């Protein structure tokens, strides 16, 4: 604070007491909701005993991690979490940029508003309800695809909820359906902010629309694309629990392609009662996730101070 | 300005692509709504489809007449959303404002305390053990309101930056010189000047509460009467009988089971779950777009 400079008098400090009081509820909440669980991560290095609590349980060192990394699960959940995230980043970014560019070029404001509203709506629907929407299409007995589409093509019904091989595609489509309307908002706002004189000059020079997009819009959009992608890469160790748990309806047969770190931690904790494995996987996620978020933000900061969290 | 042929073709194709995407976005929701008005027998015969031969209101009749659980869960959703959003907006605003005051001693340290929660978190296991072991919120109403949803660092920092850029410090200083206390300045000057950001954050939080199923899923194990509509839907995926289960009257339960239009009722409850979002959608959309643009790439 002001140590060494002007000592702060109590009178001056007293002026700020009301402001500190305003901070109090929020700080208390962050302490309970965020900082206590951070300290609670030590549970992964203990043999958890509900009676003794997190801090009273006995230390076991790295045993929980040894068990976790001996299983195939550790590899599968890591592969799935990172693999899906990479697919999401590539596909959703391409779609979001395409949509943003098209929307920015259309003039009919009423239709434009309608398109935007329609594609944003899925983002506002809860994952539980999304799992019902998917079920209406994929249900084995009553699903639209099995009852209406496949017979039309002369194909046999498929038990979607029993065949892991289809799920990478299903989850990628469902996720794109859900987030593209949301992801394109920032790109669209960025494009609208571009200096129109570039385009006017290009038109005078006889550039076509496609040439304008290739040589003006995309290069100008590059910093935004790089930054959003870096930030997404920072979150590559986290997955949307709802998407991977609710949408495949927690079907055991689908675990090989739907189990991610988040669903694994949940099942370990609340369905199998295996707190040691579950907490070890949690620490694995928190620590590597932290390192990735930190490094991606430091990288972004190098490119553009304003855009980084740090 | 005269459009060239190439431009016309570009617009034409652009409209086609966007129209297809818009239809793609809406079609699952259309199937959901149509299915909810289809008779149960028709669904069992021909599956969920867009052109049912037999429409029916039986699912909705069941929701409002035969089961008190659904209406009750719907009420819980509204209650939790109202309580949670109000509390969250108050706490977030009260936290964002002092942090926006650069004259506040320890301001940057306190901001870091907020900011660090966005970089690092304990995850599910310690959070669950803390809330159940120390705070005993399992199977209480608190479980639906407090964990994870009540406040988050992102909203606080969004609020802080809005205050810092939109409320000139001179106004606050002038109020101080006129003898206005900090609380008074906050309530009479800062809050009225910040209605747009308060509305935006209220919408973010309100949608999150309405759509949340995670807290009930994790913390409500026995007191199912506290279920929100999302928890009820979640439970029904595996167990449609839950709707008529009544521990005090088992005979009635099995009798009720045969009467549930199980294929259509799933969809009609889901429709009710989306309905409030759709009703205030224009308001939600404007605020969402504003909030995301304000938050910039940080969102």
Structure description:
The complex is a heterodimer of chains A (310) and B (299). Chain A has 310 residues and is mainly alpha-helical. Chain A has one domain: MetI-like fold (Orthogonal Bundle), CATH 1.10.3720. Chain A has helices at residues 10-14, 17-40, 53-56, 63-70, 72-105, 109-120, 127-138, 144-152, 167-192, 196-204, 209-234, 241-245, 255-258, 261-271, 275-303, and strands spanning 46-47, 58-59. A two-stranded antiparallel ribbon of chain A has the order 1-2. Chain A is globular. The two termini of chain A are 21 Å apart. The mean pLDDT of chain A is 90. With 299 residues, chain B is mainly alpha-helical. Chain B has a domain at 68-238: MetI-like fold (Orthogonal Bundle). Chain B has 16 helices and no strands. Chain B has helices at 5-36, 40-46, 58-66, 68-100, 107-119, 124-134, 142-145, 153-166, 169-177, 182-193, 195-211, 214-219, 229-238, 250-257, 262-279, 281-295. In chain B, helix 1 packs across helix 15 (262-279), helix 3 crosses helix 15 and helix 9 (169-177) packs antiparallel against helix 10. Chain B is globular. The interface between A and B is large, with 110 and 104 residues.
Give the number of helices of chain A: 15
Helicity range of chain B: over 70%
Q: pLDDT average of chain A, as an integer? A: 90
N-to-C SSE series of chain B?
HHHHHHHHHHHHHHHH
CATH superfamily of the domain at 68-238 in chain B: MetI-like
Number of strands of chain B: 0
Structural class of chain A: mainly alpha
Tally of distinct domains of chain A: 1
* C-alpha end-to-end distance of chain A: 21 Å
Order of helices and strands of chain A: HHEHEHHHHHHHHHHHH
CATH topology of the domain at 68-238 in chain B: MetI-like fold
Q: What is the radius of gyration of chain B?
A: 25 Å
Mean pLDDT over the full residue set of chain B: 88
CATH top level of the domain at 68-238 in chain B is Mainly Alpha
CATH fold descriptor of chain A: MetI-like fold
């Amino acid at each position: 604070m002001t140590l060494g400079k002007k000592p702060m008098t109590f009178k001056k400090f007293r002026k700020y007491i009301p402001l500190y009081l305003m901070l109090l509820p929020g700080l208390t909440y962050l302490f309970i909701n965020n900082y206590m669980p951070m300290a609670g991560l030590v549970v992964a290095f203990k043999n958890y005993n509900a009676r003794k609590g997190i801090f009273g349980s006995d230390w076991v060192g790295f045993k929980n991690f040894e068990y976790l990394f001996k299983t195939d699960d550790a590899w599968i959940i890591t592969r799935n979490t990172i693999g899906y995230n990479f697919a999401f980043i590539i596909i959703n970014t391409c779609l979001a940029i395409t949509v943003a560019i098209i929307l920015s070029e259309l003039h009919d404001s009423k239709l434009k508003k309608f398109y935007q509203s329609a594609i944003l709506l899925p983002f506002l629907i809860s994952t539980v309800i999304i799992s019902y929407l998917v079920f209406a299409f994929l249900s084995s007995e009553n699903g639209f695809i099995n009852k209406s589409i496949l017979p039309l093509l002369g194909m046999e019904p498929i038990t979607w909820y029993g065949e892991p091989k289809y799920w990478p595609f299903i989850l990628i489509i469902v996720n794109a359906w859900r987030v593209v309307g949301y992801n394109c908002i920032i790109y669209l706002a960025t494009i609208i902010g571009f200096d129109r004189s570039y385009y006017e000059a290009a038109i005078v020079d006889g550039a076509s629309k496609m040439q304008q997009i290739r040589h003006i819009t995309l290069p100008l959009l590059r910093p935004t694309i790089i930054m959003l992608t870096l930030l997404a890469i920072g979150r590559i160790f986290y997955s949307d629990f709802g998407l991977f748990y609710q949408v495949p309806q927690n079907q055991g047969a689908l675990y090989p392609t739907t189990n991610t770190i988040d669903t694994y931690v949940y099942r370990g904790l609340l369905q199998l009662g295996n707190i040691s494995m579950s907490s070890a996987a949690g620490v694995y996620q928190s620590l590597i996730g932290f390192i990735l978020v930190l490094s991606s933000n430091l990288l972004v900061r190098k490119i553009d101070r304003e855009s980084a969290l740090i | 300005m005269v459009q060239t042929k190439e431009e016309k073709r570009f617009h034409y194709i652009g409209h086609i692509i966007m129209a297809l995407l818009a239809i793609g976005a809406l079609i699952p929701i259309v199937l959901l709504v149509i299915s909810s008005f289809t008779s149960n027998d028709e669904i069992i015969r021909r599956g969920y489809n867009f052109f049912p031969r037999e429409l029916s209101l039986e699912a909705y009749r069941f929701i409002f007449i035969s089961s008190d659980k659904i209406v009750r869960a719907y009420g819980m959703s509204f209650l939790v959303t109202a309580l949670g959003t109000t509390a969250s907006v108050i706490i977030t605003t009260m936290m964002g404002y002092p942090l926006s005051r650069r004259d506040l001693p320890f301001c940057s340290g306190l901001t870091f305390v907020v900011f660090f929660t966005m970089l690092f978190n304990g995850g599910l296991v310690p959070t669950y053990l803390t809330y159940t072991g120390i705070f005993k919120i399992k199977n209480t109403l608190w479980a639906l309101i407090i964990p994870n949803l009540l406040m988050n660092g992102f909203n606080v920092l969004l609020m802080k930056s809005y205050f810092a850029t939109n409320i000139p410090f001179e106004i606050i200083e002038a109020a101080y010189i006129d003898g206005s206390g900090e609380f008074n300045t906050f309530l009479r000057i800062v809050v009225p000047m910040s209605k747009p950001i308060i509305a935006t954050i209220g919408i973010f939080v309100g949608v999150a509460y309405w759509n949340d199923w995670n807290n009930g899923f994790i913390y409500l194990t026995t007191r199912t009467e506290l279920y929100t509509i999302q928890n009820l839907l979640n439970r029904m995926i595996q167990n449609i009988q839950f709707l008529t289960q009544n521990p005090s009257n088992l005979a009635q339960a099995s009798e009720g089971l045969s009467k549930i239009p199980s294929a259509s009722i799933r969809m009609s409850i889901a429709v009710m779950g989306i309905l409030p979002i759709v009703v205030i959608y224009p308001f939600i959309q404007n605020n969402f777009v504003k909030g995301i643009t304000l938050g910039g790439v940080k969102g």
